[in-house]
Amino acid sequence: MSGITLNLTPSDSQHTLIEKGWFGEKEAMWPGQKFCIEVKEVLLNGRSQFQDILVFDSVSYGRVLVLDGVIQVTERDEFSYQEMITHLPLFACPNPRKVLIIGGGDGGVLREVVKHPGVQEIHMCEIDDQVIAVGKEYFRSTMSTAYDDPRLKLIIGDAAKYLLEEGVAQNYDVIICDSSDPVGPADVLFQPAFFQSMQAALNPVGGVVITQGECQWLHLDLIRKVMGEIKDMFAQIKYAYTTIPTYPSGQIGFLVLSRDGSVVLNQPSRAVAEGMNLRYYSEEIHGAAFVLPSKFVCSCG
Ligand code: SPM
Q1: How far is the C-alpha of 56 from the C-alpha of 78, rounded, in Å?
Q2: Identified catalytic residue from 178, 187, 232, 260
Q3: What does the alpha-carbon distance between residue 199 and residue 192 come to, in Å, rounded to a whole number?
Q4: Which atom of ligand 1 approaches the CA of 105 most closely?
Q5: What CA–CA distance (Å, rounded) separates 95 from 98?
Q6: Distance between alpha carbon 24 and the CA centroid of its chain, in Å?
Q7: Cα separations in angstroms, 9 against 15, 56, 79, 88, 283
Q8: Do strands 22-24 and 36-47 pair parallel, antiparallel, or not at all (unpaired)?
């Protein structure tokens, strides 16, 4: 963590998203609908090399982090996303020892990964050190709580480049791609070449990849397209989802992938240990997350 300091240039653009005390999300990926949150106080509004960053305290959702006009986390419901994108692959993987987090600079996924005592090495590749700095400054007691864990190696850089150059040698047991949406810096993380790099970096025996998989209600075409593009790369391609009120349409999905046909993706391979302090994930919800509505199951099952 040392050496990363908050250093944003001024940005006014996100203030246009706050009108009469209400923040309204940019709706580029969900035309015709807009989620709004009542603002108590704007704490930060600036621009990093990669994106606009806004932090505000809200009236009913706690502190909120917004990147490029899109809500990334609110303190009230972030645990649903962070626990599910972390514990679905970590509990499905029979023996997770080495984990890669892609993105995740706010620290929430890292907070969950460190709860697994069997994990020996955690690599996190985040392109924007300013998201880490913002997490450290504004979410230090809620999300950015594990940056001092001795198992962590932080890589500030482009995950696509990192995986191409270093991935094959790593043999990760779990890869978690905690990306923002495919508009701006995260676009590359939804391309087939990036999935190929994750496949090459994954342990072929028992390894599990999970990626932020957008929303069944809004992005079925995108989900179907990505699943089609990667169908020859993995022995198993499954889709799961979680509920979360502050993401568009109240839910977000995950692509859950393995090169190993024998890994059971939709069930935990171990019991939840005492003291993990989980608020959303459970053995039952692990299985339920893979049960899709019949309208979607034919495309994503
Ligand atoms: N560690 C939390 C980072 C959140 N990353 C995912 C954000 C996705 C935001 N957009 C959701 C749109 C879903 N259709």
Answers
A1: 15
A2: 178
A3: 10
A4: 1
A5: 9
A6: 22
A7: 14, 17, 30, 37, 44
A8: antiparallel
pLDDT in tens, 144-179: 999 999 999 999 999 999 999 999 999 999 999 999
CA proximity to 67, closest of 11, 121, 21: 11
Q: Which residues approach ligand 1 with their CB closer than 6 A?
A: 70, 72-73, 81-82, 104, 106, 108-109, 178, 180-181, 212, 214-215, 218, 247-248, 252
pTM for this prediction: 0.96
Q: Which is nearest to 125 in space by CA: 95, 152, 93?
A: 152
Q: Hey, which residues does 103 pair with through a beta bridge?
A: 178
Specify the ligand 1 atom closest to the Cα of 78: 2
Which residue puts its alpha carbon closest to atom 11 of ligand 1?
A: 247
pLDDT for res 274: 92
Q: Which of 67, 143, 180 to mutate to test the pocket of ligand 1 (most atoms within 8 A of CB)?
A: 180
pLDDT in tens, 192-247: 999 999 999 999 999 999 999 999 999 999 999 999 999 999 999 999 999 999 99
Strand partners, 46: 10, 53
Q: For residue 117, how far is its CA from the centre of ligand 1 (angstroms)?
A: 27
Shortest-distance atom of ligand 1 to CA 71: 9
Other beta carbons within 10 Å of 251: 18
Cα 180 to middle of ligand 1, angstroms: 5
Q: Which residues of 2-23 are buried (b: 16+ CB within 10 A; e: fewer)?
A: eebebebeebeebeebbeeeeb
Strand order in the sheet with 251-258: 152-156, 121-126, 98-103, 174-178, 208-212, 251-258, 236-243
Q: Is 178 a catalytic residue?
A: yes
Tell me how far apart the alpha carbons of residues 257 and 263 are, in angstroms, rounded to a whole number: 10
**Helices marked H in the chain — which ranges?**
78-92, 108-113, 129-138, 159-166, 192-201, 220-229, 283-288, 294-300
Tell me how far CA of residue 123 lies from CA of 79, 132, 200, in angstroms: 21, 14, 16
